[in-house]
Amino acid sequence: MGFLNLKTRAQKAAERDRRITVEGLCEIIKPGYRLFLSGGPATPVHTIRHLAATDHPNLQDIEVIQLTTPSDFESLRAITPSKCRFKTFSIGENSARAMQMGLLDIVPTTIAELPFMFLSGAVEIDVAIVQTSTPDKSGNVSLGTVNDVNRIAIANAAIAIAEINPNVPVTHGDTRMSLSEFDYVIESAEPLLEFSAGPYDGTLDCIGRQIATLVEDGSTVSLSMGRLFDAVAAHLREKKNLKVWTHIVSDWIIGLSESGALASYDAMRRKSPVVTTSCIGTRRLYDFVNGNPNVWLLPLFNSTHQQAMLGIKKLVSVLNVNKIDITGDSVFLSERDLQITGFDSKLNFALAATHSRGGKVIVGLRSTDRQGNSNIVISQPGSPIQNRCMLGSIRYVVTEFGVATIFAKPIRERVLALIEVAHPDHRSRLFEEAKAGGLVFGDQVFVVEHGINYPYALETMAPFKDGLAVKFRAIRPSDEDMMRRLFYQFSDEAKYLRYFTALRAMPHSEMQQYLNVDYISTLSLVGIIQTRGVGRIIAECRYSQFAEENIYEMAFIVDEHYQGRGIARYMLNRLLEIGRERGIERMSAYVLAHNAKMIAVLEKAAVPPRVIDLGEQLRYDYYL
Fold it and tell me: What's the whole-model pTM score?
């Protein structure tokens, strides 16, 4: 439907008055034309309302192209297939209904390939209608809140029309255009479309807090819009020097900025701490980005292409899903996430994070759905359209019951890790089904009752010499591989000093018994460090109750490469503190008489010890 342009748009614009009404637009549009409309808060609302209401004879068999379709097709009952139909890149319940009505064509694609569909001419455009700000003194306008493929559409359309609106913010990045690049102008004063997820509850707050603990200072985070991302962002406000690189930012960016968590604008390199394609939220967000050099809006080609993200270090991609399979590689999506702005956009950033030095992919979800069913499942339910493979990219799965680390773990340990963060009501069934399906060893031990006692409140971070930061938490059955690595890196002498015997091997049958503690009569804490985003246990301490006595024996082990930094002393005092809080009267530690290093640690405990000489051994008693 294109036609020959013998003059530039600037030349043609100078020859006529470019301001038209929607009625004038209908005279420009011809039957069979393909109309591109900007989307999200940049939707040209004034134009759409009039086009939907008019019965102009030129509006026949019109194809309307939008990245996302209107969310409520019921409001467009007046539109019939003979008048127009939509072409979009989203799939969902409303989309399916619209397809049945003959109103919609869906083009499957990815967020990264989308720009090439327009650049190559595979998706042709006769008229592009894009919402912009009002022109400044130099005659420039801003694309405002959305900069996905709008510029490409304008350049490739036979006719380009700006719906100028004083409510559109002037944004930084690559959003400025000369008004002369448009053939016509329609004036509007409609309020921008607003989107609000509403407040998040305590469950999402817990998930958001735990996700935030996985984000290091100096990271670049990829968040999206929705309650989970609001919760994550709220807990990131204590971080430092963060950057944001994502497809969509919402109102959560305001809190991150005001808290001082974001990196400063780099004037020398002209680098903003926030790079995005769309700002979708409330009027408060649109006011925040207005004239704000800390937020750059780049086209999809620049912001989401894998090549553009190769140089980003410590890229942390956070995804929300409805359900995840027990191996941690297949997820089930809500219909709202089937839009091109939804899961496929997040997956694009997730794959980029796998190539980022220090990058990580985190999935957050509630442990159960509204009906109380487990969101961690053996096999995915529902339509195949809503199932996605994560291509092995996930490192962490987070529910309100904790963090499951699944990176580089075998299927068996992935299964155990996910069961550990499933809702307690479903853990027994999940374990039995996993065992029946051969996903764990036939002799695998997993005591569901112990998991109910898991002491989440004991998780803490502790600093040590040379800037070493160690996370301490209670041990889990899924820690088997890390504990085996800790055991086998010790010398025979170190093993003897810890276990008082010449112990050379710790096979699976013995290690899983060591890991399955009840957290009451026996408590074990492990110390974990992160090396290039990979967790490693470097220390363990525990106490166990003597039979029929209120006396608890303590034991400690620290990786030989990390000894001499105060870790053993910290663990000793931590166990004594926990014992006092739990009402334990006496805690004891046995040490070989020639183990001078451990004796020095036990002598300097926060609680003065009573030392009992047993010949080859010494017993240190701590009365609480």
Answer: 0.85
